Each structure stands twice: as structure tokens, then as C-alpha cells.
Amino acid sequence: MSLWVDFYRPKQLDGLHYHHDLSKRLRSLASSDDFPHMLFYGPSGAGKKTRIACVLRELFGKGTEKLKIDQRVFLTPSKRKLDINVVQSNYHIEITPSEAGSYDRTIIQDLLKEIAQTQQVDLSAKHRFKVVVINEADTLSRDAQAALRRTMEKYMSNMRIILCANSTSKLIAPIKSRCLLVRVAAPTTEEIVEVMKHVAKQERFGLEDEAAKEIAEDSNGNLRKALLVFEALRMQSPDLSGPLTIAKPDWETYCHKVADMIVQEQSPGRVMEVRSKLYELLSHCIPPTVILKTIAERVVDRVDESLKADIMHWAAVYELRMRVGNKKIFHLEAWVVKVMSLYKHFFYGIDMDGFD
Amino acid sequence: MTFFQPQASRKAATKAVVEEPSLQPWVEKYRPKTIDDVASQEHTVAVLRRTLTSTNLPHMLFYGPPGTGKTSTILALARQLFGPDNFRSRVLELNASDERGISIVRDKIKNFARQTPRAQTKASDGKTYPCPPYKIIILDEADSMTQDAQAALRRIMETYARITRFCLVCNYVTRIIDPLASRCSKFRFKPLDSESTASRLAHVAQEENVPVSDQVISALISTSQGDLRRSITYLQSASRLSHSTDPPVPITPADIQEIAGVVPDPVINSFATSLGVEVADDSMDVDGGVKAKNFDEVRKKVKGLMREGYSATQILTQLHDLVIEHPTLAAHKKAQCALVFAEADKALCDGADEELWILETALRVYKAAS
Ligand SMILES: Nc1ncnc2c1ncn2[C@@H]1O[C@H](COP(=O)(O)OP(=O)(O)OP(=O)(O)O)[C@@H](O)[C@H]1O
Ligand SMILES: [Mg+2]
């Protein structure tokens, strides 16, 4: 039994619940052979991958649902071996080059050329080109992006590329210039409610408007999250009645605890305590940016208006330093100390020279 | 691997497959065939045209922003010099998708460079080509070559200059090491000016039988900023879209903006207004016309924008234009905003979190404007 998120995932453009104009546009693009390279972007959980799968199905028919996972071995220029998972059907292939870290260029170079120089197996395929879906395209290194450029032009007659990314900011201009940009906005609360109602109907139970709305709002436009929470709650209390307690993931609760600690006390001892908590979070592979943002969001909710902007300012500054720098923990800590000193200064007017 | 059957030979596969033109994306279909088709780069074309008759060619360096005709020009020139039959033996094209490390420079490039040009085979299409006695090595996207690899090229360029000419193509001329750049004649490719873009687009539209209004053309020009490839792609998508209904609906400037990922005016205007930068706009959404009262309201606005999935750089660009060109905002306030725009742009380029930096920008504009 698969999860609702997977089980009720629409398979065709017609089945998509929201952004109908976009679906229409995609259908008209898929109907013809001059289908362009595309770049899908938008926040996570907005349904980009589902939409891409629907486009593939629209392009080639049911065959794109028969997926196979392969492990491919690539050789880096320094003769190191890389194992990469590829998902493929007869008509398309899906890769996540960021799995290879800084060797992503090797994968792009090798795999794309190989695909570009082969033909459709299925001679009755509706299109003579094959599609390469590249996930997390915004994490591609510059070299890997450069490697895509001429490939995208040269092999256009038998290959199309679909890039999937959270944002276009990190893609180099020549790549954007070669793609049709497709923005997939997060669904609104109402749209999420509609999807949940649809699921409830299929599962044959009634869903109160109130409950649906609460779950939808909590998800912040992340449909995947909404459906997961929805299913979990339904397991707990089948009629979804009474006050809902939407369980937060552990790491989030933990971050909130850290935020509360920062607001409660500002002292060297407290910094040490916070530090060990930050290590704990990092060791559980919570991305440092997520840690910083979650803590900051919570802190600003509990401090005076006049401090809020400053706290977010330093969050932005230290997040950037964290990216450019190497030791994540240094910058997280620095931000914590900064916030504590801002807070203390605000309350007791302590002289802050030497902290700026 | 069962996925795709390899073709009989690599050679057959790499040979450009001639596709039915109607199925080709327009950017490829309307790629200039001769250097005279290249729009807007008059100076470059004039110089290159002379090389067609003089059979003398310097090493060259083409540089300029994406979609301005660099690759097209050199390919067209090479084809006009050698014709289809000699192209293969006389021209070596390497781009960023090829391995171009130092070892390749030493082997493959050097080997090709030192070969004596093969005698001209007779043109099968009955035309005569100048077919000068040298080969051309095109290093496209050369800015992605490492410094070492570039350094290794220096000697080769000099040693075999008599029989081999190089053409380096790149976006950023500063990424080419000086000793290489100084060995080349440089050609700058400008972003296409509005008139050339307009006439090129009009030409494509006419050939493809799509009616386009002047407003649509100017929307294409303003969204593509001198990148002709981008404007042609937009035009094609828009025309697909308009043909998806029966009868086709005319293309509107709003279609183009949507395709180009531009934040719609009402959205950006309402954002600016909420930050205290007032913009008169009747089409703004209802809650848009008021200034945010506090931090939480600004944050809510930013989160809304991010949920819509607009790209941070796009938001930044449009907000920047709005603020800097604002008719009544005081100059010192604009100056403060300019500072944060610059910082945010740098941060985004360094890969910083988009939401944090749009919020930072918003808060500082809010503060400056109040
Ligand atoms: N000056 C131009 N005249 C006519 N068509 C052009 C011109 N510039 C670009 N185009 C159109 O844009 C397409 C891409 O151009 P081209 O490949 O030459 O760009 P480029 O300068 O090499 O860009 P990049 O830096 O991204 O590699 C061409 O196929 C053609 O349709
Ligand atoms: Mg090019």
C-alpha cells in the first residue's frame, strides 16, 4: 500500500488539480515536435516533478510510466569511479547530477553525449527525440552548466532537456537563454483543500472544511507536506474531529527549543548549551540554512518589533557567510552570539562596541 | 545498456541530422547560414567578409553575452570558407561539453593543429569555395577552460600558425588569459539593438505565419534584453500557445511576460507599495494598495512572493528599476535602497538563501522609504 501522496499523484496533465492554464500550455507544447528545452522552477512541494511526469506521458504515452532504476558507473578524468542512480523508461532518462558533487560535469558530459548519439529503441515512438530530466539543476556546478550549453544546441534533433530547479537564480544566463522557463507556483490554501477533498472522496470519507483548511494552512503551500500530514492525522483519528494537533517534525521542535533558549537567557554558558544543540542538529543532517532560518523565524516571533529586522538582517548575513565559508557551525554560533548581544543591548543598554 | 540502441557508428551519429524544418525549434531553423544573415554585428561581419576573399585570417576571439550570434557567426564563416565537403577535415569544433583539460590540448588539439591541411575535395554541390590553405580550430565557450589548458595552447597557436587558425568564443573576455587574448583579433558581439531584434523577429514571424503586434514585439525586446535566442524561443512558445485554441487567439504582451518569467506589474507594484514606495496602479490587488504596518506584514508579503515561485533575481531587478526610477522618492532614500540592491545581488550570486535576502531587501527598502 503506497502513501496517498504517491497513490493519488496525477499521471496526466488533465488530472492535475491546479494551474490549469499552465497545464493547457504544456499540453499544446507537447503536442508538437518542436518541443523546446524546458526549465521548471518553483518552491518545493509545488508539484514540479509530477507535472514533468505528466508532460512526458503527454509526449510519449503510457510507456513513460514503466520505470527502471539503474546504477551507472562513470569514470572521472582522474579515473575515480562514480556510482550514479538513473531512472529511465524507453523514452526518457532522469538523473540527479548533484549526487556526484563536484564531478557532476563528468556525468553531464558522458551521459548526455551517449544519449544524444543513440536513437529511440521504439521506432513507433511519437517523437524522435528523447528527454533527459535533470533534477536539482540549480545545484549544478558552473562547469556542468557550461557543459550543457553547446550540447543543448548541437543534439537538439534527438534530445530535449527538462531541468527542474527551485529557482533560476543560480543558473547561468546561457542556460536560461536555451530553455523555455516554466514557473510552477505553490498551490494556494484553497487549492490544497481541493486536492485533499478529492483524496477524501476517493477514500470514501467526509472531510470537514475546518480541518482541511487547518492542514492546508500549516503546510505553507507544500502540497506534499499537506498530504503526508493529512494521512498521518487520519490514521490517528479516522474522522479527523476535535482539535487537530499537527505534529511537527522533531528537528523543527528542536529548533524552536533552541530559539526559546536564546530568548530566555543570554550568557556564555547559554551559548555553550546552544552550541551543543546546533551540533546535534547538524549531525542529523538538517541543512544548516534550514536550521538558521527555522530558529530565526521563531526568535523574531518572540522579541520586540524594533529588534526583528536586525535579527533577520544578521541571519541573512551569516547564512551567506556560511555558504561561502567552510565551517557551518562557526557562522551559526556567531549569529547566535550576535542575536544574544542585540537582545541584551536592547534590554539593558549594554555597550556593544566590539560586537559590530 | 538496453535503453537506447547505439547507432552503427559514432561518426554517423555526430553528423548533423537534417531534420524536417517544420519540426525544428526556430532558434535552430533560423540560425544564420551565412555571415550576411547575422543581424546587428555590422563591424564584425564587415571585417569577416573581407577574409572570405583575401583568404587570410588572424586568430580570433569572439566575446559577448549569450544569444548574440557568436557560435552562429564562426560556424557560418567556416562553412562559407570550406563548404560542406571539406568542413570535416578542416574544422575542429570543441566546446565546454568536450573534455578540454590540459591533456586534450596537448594531444587532440595539437595533433589536429600540426596536420598539413588536406587537399581540397571537389565540392559536391557545384559551388566553389575559397578553401584557404589552413584549418580552423573553434574553441567555443572557451571561458570554461582552465588556465593551465589555456596556457598550453599558447605554444600550439604560435608553432602552427601558418596552417592552423584558432577562434576562441566566450562570454567573458576576462576569463581568457592575457597571452592568449593578445594573440587574437578581438571581436565584441553586442547585445542586439532593438531595431535588429525587431526586424529579425518580424522576419521569423512572417516566415512562420504568426501575426504579431508591435506591442508584442516590444514586449519581446524588453524581456530578452538583447538576447535574440531568448526572444525567438519566447516567440515560438507564445505562438504554440496561441495555436492551441481554435480559432487561435492573438498573442498578447502579457503572454510574453508570463513566458519570460517576469513578475507581473500588479504584483511587483503592490509589493513596492507595501514597502512604502508608492506606485499608482489601478490593477493592483485589493490588499496591495497599502503600506505594511510592521515587520510581520512585510514578512508575509515576501513569503507570498516566494510561494509564487518568482525568481529572486527577477524580483530584485524589477524592484530595483521601480525604486531607482521612482518619480518622487527622495534621492538619499534611493541611495540607501541602491546599497541593499547591490548587496543582495552579490549575495544571490554567491548562492545565499533567496527568501532571507528578499526579506532583507524588503526590510531595508521599507526602512529607507519611511
Ligand atoms: N546576430 C544574430 N543574427 C541572427 N540570429 C541570431 C543572432 N544572434 C543570435 N541569433 C539567433 O540565436 C541563436 C543562437 O545564437 P548563437 O548560438 O550564435 O549564440 P551565441 O552568441 O553563441 O550564444 P552563447 O554565448 O549562449 O553560446 C541562433 O540560432 C539564431 O537563431
Ligand atoms: Mg554559443
TrEMBL record, chain A:
Residues 34-187 form the AAA+ ATPase domain. One of its GO terms (biological process) is DNA repair. Its main location: nucleus. SUPFAM superfamilies: P-loop containing nucleoside triphosphate hydrolases, post-AAA+ oligomerization domain-like. One of its GO terms (cellular component) is DNA replication factor C complex. Keywords: ATP-binding, DNA replication, Nucleotide-binding, Nucleus. One of its GO terms (molecular function) is ATP binding. It is found in: Nucleus. InterPro entries: AAA+_ATPase (IPR003593), DNA_pol3_clamp-load_cplx_C (IPR008921), DNA_Rep/Repair_Clamp_Loader (IPR050238), P-loop_NTPase (IPR027417), RFC_lid (IPR047854). It holds the Pfam family RFC_C. Belongs to the activator 1 small subunits family. PANTHER family: REPLICATION FACTOR C / DNA POLYMERASE III GAMMA-TAU SUBUNIT (PTHR11669), REPLICATION FACTOR C SUBUNIT 3 (PTHR11669:SF1). This is Replication factor C subunit 5. It comes from Meripilus lineatus.
From TrEMBL, chain B:
Residues 56-193 form the AAA+ ATPase domain. Keywords: ATP-binding, DNA replication, DNA-binding, Nucleotide-binding, Nucleus. Its main location: nucleus. It is found in: Nucleus. GO terms for cellular component: DNA replication factor C complex; Elg1 RFC-like complex; nucleus. Belongs to the activator 1 small subunits family. This is Replication factor C subunit 2. Pfam families: AAA, RCF1-5-like_lid, Rep_fac_C. InterPro entries: AAA+_ATPase, ATPase_AAA_core, DNA_pol3_clamp-load_cplx_C, DNA_Rep/Repair_Clamp_Loader, P-loop_NTPase, Rep_factorC_C, RFC_lid. It comes from the Eukaryota. GO terms for molecular function: ATP binding; ATP hydrolysis activity; DNA binding; DNA clamp loader activity. GO terms for biological process: DNA repair; DNA replication checkpoint signaling; DNA strand elongation involved in DNA replication.
